[in-house]
Specification:
Largest sheet: 6 strands, antiparallel
Number of strands: 9
Structural class: mainly beta
Radius of gyration: 16 Å
Distance between the termini: 23 Å
Length: about 160
Amino acid sequence: MQAPRGGGNWLEAAVELRVRGMPGGGEAGRWAERVGVRLALGVERRDGGYRFFQSEAEVVALKAGTAVVRFYLPPEIVERERISGAPFAWMAEIAVAGEARPGGLVSSVLRDATALESFRNRVKAEAAANAGVLVPQYDSPFEHEYAADTPSYVRRTGS
């Protein structure tokens, strides 16, 4: 995806959430408060190995319905790793009001429990080397794109 002011192609990862609201979440539970999304990506390297990235974002609140939380890999990584489509593997973990939700979302190659555990271990061991490279929408040139469906984010110091 081309940045609004040029500068190469970014990889966009959009996590689509189906929000049902929460008991006590305001307006008779039609809202989910403080929704966190942690996204992990595994991309194939040119040398045949893999590189892992992880980022997270927290949304102030989401109304019942569909919401999208977006993350981006910068063009230098897309070019260096020759990424032309979807990552090899990905996993999104969801939390609401600080509590992890069971299940999460995973790519088809991670549906096997052994593959998923291996991916989690690799992300845990290797993603820190790429900290800050995969960024949430608000830290990218796409901050003001998708105005109609971009939620408001909780921003912490340094974010």
